Amino acid sequence: MFQQLKNIDSAFRYVRSFSIITFIGSLLLCCCVIFKSYQIVQDTQERIYILANDKALEAFAAERKDNIPVEARDHVKMFHLFFFTLHPDDRFIQDNISRALYLADGTAKKQYDNLRENSYYANIISGNISQEVEVTEIQIDVSSYPYRFRCEAIQTIIRTTSIATRSLITEGYLRNVARSDNNPHGFLIERWKTLENKDLKTQNR
Q: The whole model's pTM is what?
């Protein structure tokens, strides 16, 4: 009889141990499934699909800090393209300057006012002059805020009788602002100044 009770007790302990192990295993499995499901949901939420030319393109969301250098360089580039690309059309000049001034503070407005007072834009219109700019290098220092930048570019000034090529070097700082349709990158150029703007060559047409 004692042997039978001992066998029953051993069987009970075995069943209890088996049940505990099964419960812990099930709990771990459930945790793994929940964690994996959460990861999949997060990955799915970070993906969007853009329809372009009847093709679905996949895009991924990312933290702003991951894209600061790229967005900052594009912000600086677009500002210089808007500010320095000019054609003999008053409406074109005003549109480009307006777009540029959304991307910078009063230092850019001050340079624009100085150029306008010196009849720079009026001379472009009356002389049928076109001015184009090609940004060759942009350096961004993201180690400290506001972010300092240096922009190097080549200006091409096309006149009726000649084409002049000039070097352009500017610098300034970028600070964060709210994004908008007029400022999609959410930066504002501050303390902008021209370090160099000199003739490289002139050729007759």
A: 0.70
